[in-house]
Amino acid sequence: MKKALFIFFLYFSVQSYSQNYIPAKLDSITSIYKNKGEYEKVFQYNIAALQYYKEHDNPEGEALANINIANALSTFDEHQKSLHYLDEAKKQLHIINNNGLNARLCNEIARNYAFLGLYSQSNIQLNKSIEYLKHAPDTKENRNSLFFVYIWKWSNFEDLKLPDSINAMRKKGKKDFPNEPKIYVRIAEQFLSKKQHLDSVEYYLNKASVLAVKNNSSLHAYGAIATRRGNLYTLKKDYPKALEYYQESLPIYLKINRGADIINTYKKIYETYLALHDILKANEYLTKYTELNDSINSGERKAVASVVNNLAIEQEKEKNNLYLIIVVITGIALVSLTAVFMVRKRNKNKNIRRDQLLEEQKKLINEKILETDQLKKKVDTSINDLAKMATSNNPFFISKFKEVYPEFYEKLISQYPELTHHDIKFIAYVRLNLTNKEIGQCGNVTLRAVETKKYRLKKKLELPADMDLGTWVSEL
């Protein structure tokens, strides 16, 4: 009852306050809530503002509120809903010319794509953001947008394993934003990932901590610093100290409901308890990790499917535009040929032959398009058949897998000849992007058994502890 009354009064207080909104005030109050990690208030506050802007026909306010709502939803790992609000913001920005808001729109799309593992597509959006910012006024908000671009491109380059690009973003970040704590957190992360210069890690994390306090940074910045300190002490094999920092970061991520960070911290705590030989506590956090990971992975798969579908639609539009251009050019060419035909009758045979060649080329292009579509359908069918064979535990599953992924299979067995038939079968399930639950159904085993198998396989393959098995399989 108390909770219902609280939400009731919060809603109407926000509604009355929203009537004094101007976009700058909306941004200011949203930032205060975000820094405190109060993302539910961010959501409620901007929902009320969005309604107000709609009633008062303010497309700039609508776009800004939609972007802020999308940011909160993305933080909750609700990427499909987040992208829906960004589509709404895009409609409003077609009405007005605001380079700063267009940059923020691109940044939020990029953020969703990065969370979904679409790093190259994310960078395309960040590059668009940079172009908008070149024509935007030099304001605090636009400087924040540029910093956002630096941080996320840096992160994307790390996931894409592009060291030259990573170093370029590191130099730009230190030069243009020397007082931002997240710059030094990322530098510390680089050293941690390479397991080098651990004294430098301590130095950069201390610098980040000082700047976080000085700048009154967001809660997430403190969580990020604590997590990296935990990683540092894990490398030093000081597991009690590592656990202390992971336990410090966890309530921060739970408060701001940051799913990806919560999952990662559950996994770190599980591995730390395992190193401390506390099996009971390790299993407790393994269960939390598995349940949340499966839940988020399911949502992410739906969001990725939606994004891929939208990208396909955009590509189809571009293809149709290209066809239209070809038709126009062909029409102009035909008109010109007709004129030449009328003026120079003696070139009649030559022009007829040219038309025949154009028709043959057009026919050849159509045949290639049809061939490509048929090949794509065949591949999609093969992958679906494989998934069905896996879940039904078909004895010919591996034989079919070799046919669909011949290069992957040959590379796997040639590089890792020590793998057993069961190991190869398990890796095949991972290659098909089956969830832990689905893998468990294939082998008629528990979720815990699946996680244990993944852990043992990583050891057998001599993979780093922080590397995800699915990522390794997709990159093999």
From TrEMBL:
Location of this chain's protein in the cell: Cytoplasm
The entry's keywords: Coiled coil, Cytoplasm, Membrane, Repeat, TPR repeat, Transmembrane, Transmembrane helix
Coiled-coil intervals: 347-378
Keyword Cytoplasm included in the entry's annotation: yes
Transmembrane portions of the chain: 322-343
InterPro entries assigned to the protein according to its UniProt record, in alphabetical order: Bac_ResReg_Asp_Phosphatase, Sig_transdc_resp-reg_C-effctor, TPR-like_helical_dom_sf
This protein's record includes keyword Aminoacyl-tRNA synthetase: no
Highest taxon listed in the record's lineage: Bacteria
Membership in a protein family: Belongs to the Rap family.
Protein name: Tetratricopeptide repeat protein
Protein species of origin: Chryseobacterium rhizosphaerae
